[in-house]
Specification:
InterPro entries: Cyt_P450, Cyt_P450_CS, Cyt_P450_E_grp-I, Cyt_P450_sf. Its cofactor is heme. It comes from Medicago truncatula. With 262 residues, the chain is mostly helical. The chain is built from seven helices and eight strands, in the order H-H-H-H-H-E-E-E-E-H-H-E-E-E-E. The longest helix is centred in the first third of the chain and has 32 residues. The chain starts with a helix and ends with a strand.
Length: 262
């Protein structure tokens, strides 16, 4: 693990070095990305607000926080769709009607894909990538709905259990994306029954990026390939057991066959 982290730090440091060099060369390519913004506030190294090592570790944090979570939700989305072929057919039909054959999926298509968005929300409800969010500490004693939470208490929010609570959701164990077509609930932190990214001032800062990445990746995968379970498995045989950890992994990694639909 330490070796992997060291290797990642070296890669990030190399990218920073390359960008610094290209910025100081005559041909300046303006990327206007996070790295450029950090380098802009870092101009005049001696008085810099952020050291090179802090910059590398910031990228490491973003990488670690964004990779497992995004890949986990994408794996669960594909698994749920393969277990529920009628929903898979519905998403693919929506994609065909919205995006032409051979056309590249773009960010502007996402809002035109309500069923795909519902599939993503439904998967977050059942399989939130960080099932207990991150631990929080209570600054002041507080009473919430009759429960006293003392100062300094560590608070874990069980979003996994909230997603399966029958007092909140009808047929909570059923994969039914349609439930989100009939309501305005989203995961942006305003609807407390669905907060896989947290809520409030410590809400995941990667939410806007994750929202785009997930939809674009799933839409591209489903639009360009026909998907089947590997090893001749039928949908009912697919093992959907979850393994608890900081992120919610599948007990059995998903094995699939993808055939180009071009
Ligand atoms: C499906 C994708 C993702 C999910 C479900 C997710 C979920 C979360 C959750 C639950 C938290 C803790 C919120 C809390 O404290 O209550 C968090 C924090 C964080 N996430 Fe994400 N995240 C995702 C993607 C990303 C991406 C793509 C990035 C960055 C590129 C990112 C960066 C971070 C960072 C830096 C924090 C810590 C923020 C803080 O301490 O205030 N996340 N995320």
């Amino acid at each position: 693990m330490t070796n992997h982290m060291k290797k990642l730090c070296e890669i990030f440091d190399g990218i920073i070095e390359e960008r610094i060099r290209s910025r100081s060369s005559k041909v300046v390519e303006v990327c206007n990305d996070v790295l450029d913004s950090l380098l802009n506030i870092n101009i005049g190294e001696a008085t810099s607000e952020l050291s090179r090592s802090e910059m590398v570790h910031l990228f490491l944090d973003l990488f670690v926080a964004g990779i497992d979570t995004t890949s986990s939700i994408i794996e669960w989305i594909i698994a749920e769709l393969l277990r529920n072929p009628d929903k898979l057919t519905k998403v693919r039909k929506e994609l065909c009607q919205t995006i032409g054959k051979g056309e590249t999926i773009e960010e502007s298509h996402i809002f035109k894909l309500p069923f795909l968005q519902a599939v993503v929300k439904e998967t977050f409800r059942l399989h939130p990538p960080i099932p207990l969010l991150l631990p929080h500490k209570c600054d002041e004693p507080v009473n919430i709905l009759g429960f006293n939470v003392p100062k300094n208490a560590q608070v874990l929010v069980n979003v996994w259990a909230m997603g399966r609570d029958p007092t909140i959701w009808k047929n909570p164990d059923m994969f039914a994306p349609e439930r989100f077509l009939e309501c305005d609930i989203n995961y942006k932190g305003n609807n407390f029954e669905l907060i896989p990214f947290g809520a409030g001032k410590r809400i995941c800062p990667g939410l806007p990026l994750a929202h785009r990445t997930m939809h674009l990746m799933v839409a591209s995968l489903l639009h360009n390939f026909e998907w089947n379970l590997a090893d001749g498995l039928i949908p009912e045989q697919l093992n959907m057991d979850e393994q608890f950890g900081l992120t919610l992994k599948r007990v059995q990694p998903l094995r699939v066959q993808a055939i180009s639909s071009a």
